[in-house]
TrEMBL record:
GO terms under cellular component: ribonucleoprotein complex; ribosome
Organism: Tepiditoga spiralis
UniProt keywords, alphabetically: Ribonucleoprotein, Ribosomal protein, RNA-binding, rRNA-binding
Gene that encodes the chain: rpsK
Protein name, as recorded: Small ribosomal subunit protein uS11
Keyword RNA-binding recorded: yes
InterPro entries assigned to the protein according to its UniProt record, in alphabetical order: Ribosomal_uS11 (IPR001971), Ribosomal_uS11_bac-type (IPR019981), Ribosomal_uS11_CS (IPR018102), Ribosomal_uS11_sf (IPR036967)
Family as reported in the entry's similarity comment: Belongs to the universal ribosomal protein uS11 family.
Function: Located on the platform of the 30S subunit, it bridges several disparate RNA helices of the 16S rRNA. Forms part of the Shine-Dalgarno cleft in the 70S ribosome.
Transmembrane segments: none
Length: 128
């Protein structure tokens, strides 16, 4: 009987010159995602991913740690220019942006993509 040799899948080297960091911040958590320009996720982190549980996930410090983790990974991959899109009403928005800038990444554009209702739901019919 022939011997089987195990072959490991080699990781592909990703070379990205520009990335997009998406910050989704709500009152309970902040999710920071690094994507390429097309939208394919490269790496991500959140308040829960860095070790916090419960209400501490929604703090600015937890979002700062999550953004720092993503920014260090981006620098390791060779990305130096990023666009930042921010979504949601949470408290970790500004601290995450400051951390990304402090990590050595150049921010080209900051865009707020928070959805805003423009007319609301249809009202109930009138009672007689």
């Amino acid at each position: 009987m022939a011997k089987r040799t195990a072959t490991k899948n080699k990781k592909k080297k990703i070379s990205i010159d520009k990335g997009v960091i998406r910050i989704h911040s709500n009152f309970n958590n902040t999710i920071v995602t690094l994507t390429d320009v097309r939208g394919n996720v490269v790496t991500w982190s959140s308040g829960g991913n860095v070790g916090y549980k419960g209400t501490k996930k929604g703090t600015p410090y937890a979002s700062q740690l999550a953004a720092d983790k993503v920014a260090k990974e981006a620098v390791k991959l060779g990305i130096n220019k990023v666009d930042v899109t921010v979504k949601g009403p949470g408290s970790g928005r500004e601290s995450a942006i400051r951390t990304i800038q402090a990590a050595g990444l150049t921010i080209d554009q900051i865009k707020d993509v928070t959805p805003i209702p423009h007319n609301g739901c249809r009202p109930k019919k009138k009672r007689f």
